[in-house]
Amino acid sequence: MATAETFNLGFIGAGKMAESIARGVSKSGLLPPSYISTAHRSQHRRDAFSSFGVKVFHHNIEVVEASDVIILSVKPQVVKEVLLELSPLLSEDKLLVSVAAGIKLKDLQEWAGHGRLIRVMPNTPSAVGEAASVMTLGEKASKEDEKRIGSLFGAIGKIWIANEKCFDAVTGLSGSGPAYIYIAIEAMADGGVAAGLPRDLAFNLASQTVLGAAAMAMKSGKHPAQLKDEVASPAGTTIAGVRELENGGFRAALINAVVAAANRSSTLS
Question: Which stretches make up the Pyrroline-5-carboxylate reductase dimerisation domain (predicted)?
């Protein structure tokens, strides 16, 4: 049984996001993997979770019965169906946390018949303890619930609180954003190879450069434009590269990507 310091955590949905969160929580030491459970029919997905000690049941009902906090991490298109099936089991002593993109608290509450809800938008760097997550509370979620989920997602990265009206934009930026950065890392590495670097060195340099630049942006207190200007000396190499990015519409492409993903999130509701 969970103690006052721990709790039983269940995942309804055993996809990549659930796996990332579960791995991150397990690695953080916040909860032992034996306090975490999920269910899936596919042996491949069952093996992915059991490989690091998570209990894997045969049915979602078993997960709900065994859990104090339930993270709903299924595809948005099946959230209603799943919640209607599980609603008889969702008593008020269970906290329901949804990470499904686009599905609003009012719909979650209606389908679950349950008001003790928190909505969170995390991202896949949860698996390595570097998530960017945002949460908003349902009407019956308590301060203790807020603290518990803040600690849970804070153990796998950083978490902020925002009004639910921001969530489509959050989804477009941080929820989908890792994919944009992976493309940038791949492209930078390809550029290094094109300029004569070995593939492994190019990949490692590109990845570490993105990591270091992000750390500078977070820790220096300086605006990104100022940090960029500090690298770009007059008639130097960096400004030549920046000019090519501007010619290629790099900045506009990223802005458009975030807006397109946010718009797609809004249609899911």
Answer: 164-267
